[in-house]
Amino acid sequence: MGSAETPVAGARVVVTGAAGFIGSHLAEAVGARGATVLGVDRRDPSSDANAAANLRELLGSSGFTYLRADLRRAALEPFLEGADVIFHLAARASVRESWGDNFEEYATANLCATQRVMEAAVRLRVPRVVVASSSSVYGRTDGTPSRETGPVLPASPYAVTKLAAEQLALAHAMRAGSVTTVIALRYFSVFGPRQRADMFIHRVLRAALDGQPMRLFGDGSRRRDFTYVSDVVAATVAAGAAPPRSQVLNVGTGHRTALSEVLAVAADLTGAPVPVVVDRGSDGDVRDTLADLTAVRAALGWEPEVDLAAGMSQQIAQLRKEFVPGAA
Question: Is the CB of residue 290 less than 8 Å from the CB of residue 145?
Answer without folding.
Answer: yes
